[in-house]
Amino acid sequence: MRRQARSVRELSGPCADALGNELLLATEPAVVRGLVGDWPAVQAAGQSAAAAIDYLRRFDRGMQVVAQVAPPEADGRIFYNADFSGFNFQPQRVTFAAVLDQLQAWLDQSPTPLLYMGSTTIDTALAGFRVQNDLAIDGHTPLASIWIGNRSRIAAHQDLPDNIACVVAGRRRVTLFPPDQLKNLYIGPLDFTPAGQAISLVDFAAPDFERFPRFAEALQQAQVAELEPGDALFIPSLWWHHIEALEAFNVLVNYWWRSSPAFMDSPMNTLMLALMTMRDLPAEQRRHWQEIFRHYVFEANDGTAAHIPEPARRVLGPLDDNIARELRARLLQRLNR
Question: What is the pTM of this model?
Fold first, then answer.
């Protein structure tokens, strides 16, 4: 599969310029080699997995976290169970120290169960970590998360925010696809997902091209990034990405931000409402609504409401916090009636 994919473009690092507009406003992924190579956490990981674990223990405040555990037969894959009635892993609420203890105990064992602590807010779970290990992203106040586990395979999914993922320990392989590959990735349920985002049902380790024939087309558009400790990967909003953690101990830190006003809700809410209110309309009515959305949303411009006096344009004019608040209240009232 990977022979068909080209490598993600690379920017040289570490340097402050790497986080300039060339990267932060990019619409395609980019790798910045060594961007966080001077972090103490990365330096500790360069010594050994045990040293990285000891370093992380310094910031443990006894907080409980959620970890996913799957049997060795899962081969590290976070996925559904056989009949899609549930998942192939069990979430467990444990202490952060317990996660580190178990991962350390399994360092020299193979095979082992999967143990995976997914997106966890650093400022909540590891107070003080960002004092020594952090990335400044000009013009944004990103949410910083940490991911810790052993060998894992996270199915291809997309996230709404832009994202810089920084490898702290272990190695990662990330396979990315442009947003327009949706139809070729065979995405599963939208409202019943392993971790909040809809995922591709294709097993990237053993693609079933008879069941998922269009996946071959997706592979023609794939880009692959092979990441070492200290490397970072910029993933633009809505790019599909499949992530493999390749070592017995892996740590990733990522930063999320949205390039949109704070009052804007998630477009996923719009999709869910559209499924409920438009998908099952007669075909001719759907075509009418397609034209309405084209006019007011996807091709809106200065002329869309130019014939309406400015004070009367309301939602057809520039939006702000107050108008968004009024809209939200009106929608809630209608949905709850």
Answer: 0.93
